[in-house]
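Note to self: the last two entries modelled the partners one at a time, which told us nothing about the interface. This time every component goes in together.
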Amino acid sequence: MSDSLIDATQLSKTVMTAAGELMVLENITLSVAQGESLAIVGESGSGKTTLLSLLAGLDQPTRGHLTLFGSDVGALDEDGRAALRLGRVGFVFQAFHLLPSFTAIENVAAPLELAGMDDAMERARAALEKVGLAHRLNHLPRQLSGGEQQRVAIARAFAAKPTLLFADEPTGNLDQGTGARVTDLLFDLSQGGTSLVLVTHDLKLAARCQRQIRLDGGRRVA
Amino acid sequence: MNFLLTLIKHARREWRGAELKPVLAALLVAVAAATGVMAFTDRVERALNSRGSELVGGDGLLASRFPISQALEDSAREAGLDTTRVVAFPTVLFVGDLSVLVEIKAVESNYPLRGKLTAAPSVEEAAQNASPPAPGEMLLDPRAIAALEVVVGDMVEVGNARLRVAGVLRDDPEGAGSFLSFAPRALLHRDDVEALGLVGPASRAFHRLLIAGDQAQVKAFADAIRPSLKGVRLTLSQDAEQQLAEVARQARAFFGLAALSVLWLAALAIALTARRYTQARRDIVAQLRCFGLSRRRILLQLGGTLGVYALPAVALGVALGYGLQYIIAAGVEAIFAEPLPPPSARAGALGALVGVLAYFAFTMPALQQLTATSPARLLRNTDDQLGWRELAAYPIALLVLTGAIYVLTGEGQVGIIAFIGITVLALLIALVLGTLLRIVRWKPPGRRFATRQAWRQLASRPGTTLLSATSLALALTAVLLLGVVSSDLVRQWRTGLSAETPNRFLLNIQPDQRNALAERLTAIGIENVTLYPFAVGRLVAINGAKPKPEDFDDPRAARFIDGTLNLSWNETLPAANTLTSGTWWTQGDEVSIAENWAQSLGLKVGDSITVAIGDREVSARIASIRSVDWDSFRVNFFLLFKPSTMAGIEGTYITSVRTDAEQGKALGRLLREYPNLTLIDVDALLSRILGVVDAIVRSLSAIFWCALAAAACVLLAAFAVTVGARRFEHALWRSLGAAQSTLRATQRLELAAIGAIGGGFGGIAALATGWALAKYAFQIDYAAPWWIAPLGATIGIALCLSAGWIVLRSVSRTPPGQMLRA
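The predicted structure of the combined assembly is written out below.
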């Protein structure tokens, strides 16, 4: 049995289009160890997001084999895959994806409640304090700036102390200065033993990860 | 042509989207409800109008509690008019052990002067034109025939006589007040009246003289006699027509106002769904404007699409409306003496007009806003500022809606006030629910994720929650109030009448019958009978001056001045009476008057009144004013004189008694020995009145079920607005590890909570209204049917879950990977 959190072997993904079958990803093999950070880089349309989606168990590969936390993802149905993520996986999305009608603290607390934590509100408050938003607890996302929204998303991702964090272009919607501050926060928080899988086309951001893989046209080229 | 083709193509594409259908469903409900009500009220209106000229059985009638003087009849004849006399009075008919209270009409051979009298040889056979019954015979209403179990040819006891049933009475043209028939009718010849022994000076008989002739002659005669009429009411056929038109107008306003709740909810649903429809098209419109399409062209295309689909929705709505009017009419048909005419096409056109006006009014603001979408939206995804055209759309919408309300109710001001009333009620409900939601948001109840999340979602979408729950609450308040609370309230009021509450009135007791009758009543177990003297008089002076109806603001004053008065005299203050001012008898000629009579005529203690009783005039000082409990079913009078003031006045006697079933039968047998007595069976009368109330409630219920359908449209629309957000939430929670079952449970709990809150609130509001009615209108201790609240909640839950299943079931199919692509 491997020590890796993620073990992907020969992962391929095809989709049907009007013009026939389209290969989106082809024979990707990689692994992510406990506490490791991995950047997936590539041009737009290279298959980065599709790969992230497969690694997180959000989507199923057409071919290949994937184990997540030691479980064979291919043998699990969607609920099984969700259970695998529950409380152990965090996400940071490019578009933040906060619940628009929930306040900052509710956005952070709700996933903790989902993971069955009784002290969800206290933990959420602590997580928001850690990202410097103690004064914004009861604000709705639309009342926050882009950088603040992403900090709420980071607090949401880290509040449950996940083993593995997937970040999809976390600074893609932010200006340079705000992006840099969010990146610092992301890497600071992942120092606590959280593995990080980061999708980006920003090479400077990728360089802060321990390892990088490069995709081009759905293939791993580096 | 090119535009038309584009429009058709566009319309076909639009049908595939999910946003258009709810708009049309809301339109359908509005048209169906409006058509249903319009068709029904139109039938009532035409039924009433068709009878207008025949209603008085002539071109005019003179009516009085006393026989119309021969001099009046002679002067009518001298004026070249035809005349005929009618005497009407209630009495009980007997056949063996069976009896029935009927309204007897004794007529002459030339009756009626206008209109047709029809009768049938048996209940099953068709009616034919008939002549008035010959002496010794009678025509009997089918209800009386059924109650007495007789057939044509059988003999029936009435008063001191036995008459042969000559036919089944169908159409009796002279029927002011008989259109809504409470008691079955019996027609007999006026020559038999004396032999019956039922009509005396103070008996409860109504005398009428019908007149007919050339219109100018009738008018000239009416003008000539009007100033000198005393205690005689003159009604010309055109007055009767006006009265019927007024009844028809009231019926339309009554049912129209009930249908307003449907229009209100349907308008809300149309506004909501239209807004969702246009919001989903803002990016497309921004692109079209970017490509150079004019605002007018876009408005025409979108408005045209909505119009194209409105046509079949309106047609279907009209068809459903005609179906609905049958249900409404079926409820009340039993209380109409004759079948209603079939529905007309005009009602469908008006119903469609109301629906289309509401549709136009409430889609236009959304369309105006949509066409105002700036092409710059493509660059910065912000809300557009509203210009004057968009802002003007709202007042125009309200103006158009006012037109719709006017068409629906026939009432401009009252309709608008009712509409505002519903809005205020909705806002009140929303305010209470909004406060509850704030509390829930602050501390969501429950320990499970699904429960807490459901409450949190409920509170975090206050718009959807409040709209849905308020609409449900409004509709269910109406449905439950009518369907359950009202009938329960009436039932409780009836059963709650104390065991001593009288249920029979005995009238026309002659002075020489008093002692013997009291003994006979005691013998059948009816004790402590108080007999009150009874006389009929007219008010001729107040403080020495002749009163004129036009001097009083209260319209009832005219009735008291022109009509006859039932009066009595007694040494002691009767039960169910309380003095509110003045003192009981002191000295001189005195009278005590009822509070409401005093208010109508502006009288106070110390004033004096003069009444004419037969050919005697009696003047008395008002010694006291009494508050009278008219609900006590005891014998009560507006005017109660000191006995010495009435010395020498010979009246009849009246009493009210409480009987059980056996005593009731014994009393029936007793009447055979005293055929001049009139028995009024309060139980039977109450049953008949309650039957009418029930029938109206049934009809209104049909309308309020439409309100529930409109509320369901609001639910569908409000839930549909949230589909996009819910898909996003579903994908997010799935990516964070939530099980499908947890998310489904969350959504169901959320919807069920909306249903429970809205429905429960509706139930509580219905109970509260019932309680208020019980306390202030019925004045009874009301055992509230508390189960209405959970019943409302259950209906609400079922509706919300059903609407959720229709609109939101696709949400759970959203794949979690969508989060990364959003």
